[in-house]
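Incident log, structure service

09:12 report received: a user says their structure output differs between two submissions of the same chain.
09:20 pulled the input from the user's history:
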Amino acid sequence: MLRNNLVRLCFYVALFGCISFGSSGADEGMFPISELGRLQLNKKGMELTPNDLFNPDQVSLVDGICRVNGCTGSFVSKNGLIITNHHCAFDAIQKASTAANDLLQNGFTAKTLQDEVPASNYTVRITEGYSDVSEKVLSAVTPSMPFLERTQAIDKRRKELEQLAEKENKGLRAEVAEMFAGKTYVLFLYTYIKDVRLVFAPPVSVGAFGGEADNWEWPRHTGDFSFMRAYTAPDGSSAEYSPNNVPYHPKRHVRVAPQGANEEDFVFLLGYPGRTVRQKTLSFLQYEQSVRLPTVVELYAWQIQEMDKAGAEDRSVAIKHASRTKSLANVEKRSRGQLLGLKRTSIIASKEEQEKSLQAFIDADPTRREKYGSLLAEIASVYDDMTSKGALELHFKELKSACRALSFAFTIYDAAIERSKPDLERETPYMNRNFDQTIQQLKLDIADWHPKTDTTILTGLLNRLSTIPSNSTIPPLSRLLSRRIARDAQAAALIEGSRLGDSGFVDECLKKSPEELAKTNDPILALMIELYPHYKSLRDLDKERDGKLGKLYGTLMEAKQAFQPSEFVPDANATLRITYGRVRGYSPADAIQKTPVSTLQGVIEKTTGVEPYITPKAVIDRYQAKDFGPFVHPKLGQVPVAILYNTDTTGGNSGSPVFNAKGELVGVNFDRTFEATINDFAWNESYSRSIGVDIRYVLWITGIVYDAKHLLDEMEIAIK
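09:34 re-ran on a clean worker, output below:
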């Protein structure tokens, strides 16, 4: 399965037919790189050929793109320098910060390689190739197989193929991704780098200027970028952090275009977008609108408020909460935008009409009716079950994740159960190839634990669970809720009595069997051991649902393709994709027209000196001195800060390079507009806009404001 022998994925065309393209310079779709040959990008404005973008036999632009944890990054020098978003590097910045050395607040510049700070539990992946393994995966299932067993069989086969591929391709990481539900699976090979370091980060007042008030909004004035570096062992192999490691040398690095991009310029993005759900049914949308999204908004907004209160008077506590607060706030506002979008747009009504037409098409032919007639109803039955049980299931899951002590306890006990099984039968985090990273993340989370906040969160979740009548279906939870003691006192006793904040105790626990853990007398661990069978049952139920939906959605794709083959666009799934469009404004409401470039002048105009609109003195001083270097927009006469473009993006595209027609870096993607939060469900050129930090602002902040000219030199950018 070497790179130069990889099979091109023509099954997209064979199985699902053609995709229709418009003339707006942007099309719906985060297209797999297997589609490059038929997208006709040269007619849209692209100056590169498909082989320039990706070529399994030669070095191409894709070799300069990487995945940085859950985000995307670009190599911008031959020595492994990576540009990504500030919010993607945020966890590394936070973990390296203390109240005495606050890198979040003050920013960070490594003047030499020796000054670069390890980014704990960060990994970098570079796509080396891919091959279709659908037949091999699906050979593990039979038509009569129970749905839970089906999911487990597919999961095990995927792991077998991954292990085999890694044996055949020493030094590479393999992952099998489901491309089309229940139908198509692709094995991706990655270079996998485990030593990643922080190089440069502007202060959070630049990197997150506008905070949550401006998040998902336009105009944005946020310098959402940071630089990191990938390292390997001296022999070039992947290795954990060591002072003896050396910078990684990518096959290709991306050329930075200091002139940036202007309105109506053609642009394209390469990256690793997360998951879209545009091929899901009406019943799924109804579940999202009525159950999951409102629950996420309420629970996350409440947790953010409690963590903000806890950190208001103590910067060390605020630093502990910073990464989690930022993550929750991003999801909470996106979910609010999606709820609003579902209500304001015609997505649900359109989906209902589409399904009525599809059902009529199915019913019009006896053969189709026999094969597909009950599909939509069967899918709806799964979401009906999720809806009826949603309040309890969602709150019960949140109990395990929001209460950090219970999260630690679950990982410890789950590891003890899973690690006693053969490797291929374990849950993914506990497999040998992943377990070190799982434990490292556990210890990082424990280092950020604040017991007082956790007591507040646990109290609030118990109060919420007590109002859900069906909590009686979980006897240990029901018994806990029925105790005659005030909930805050009950939560305090559990948290204060636990030793899970002691890393030494946790190390000992990780060596114990399930039976030995039951004898530790830790109250949080004891509670989790009681709750664990119900979490295990819920996990199995989710797998059973996934198995059923995977099979049904796979069949539904066949029916939809027979009905309207030209309208199918594959959903994103965290694998390498391309999307393209133009730098372009939009009109979000009547009589409102938003232009596509924001400027440094806007930063100054927004600055109040009060969060979230604080601008560092260094930025203000350079602005007042008109010390802009060569980074002024030729028409606007200002340093441009952010740009807007009509590409199709979603989560995971954070950090994606924004390229011009020549494949030169002109920006770094970091967000969508509030109207475009609905992109996960549906895309529309009239309102779907993505936001990137303009490369000119990146270079001005880095090289002129914070005097990191050595990084511009490394990127071969001269300041005259």
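09:41 both user submissions now match this output. Likely a transient worker issue. Closing.
09:42 reviewer note: The first strand starts at residue 31 and ends at 32. Residues 1-24 have pLDDT under 50 and may be disordered.
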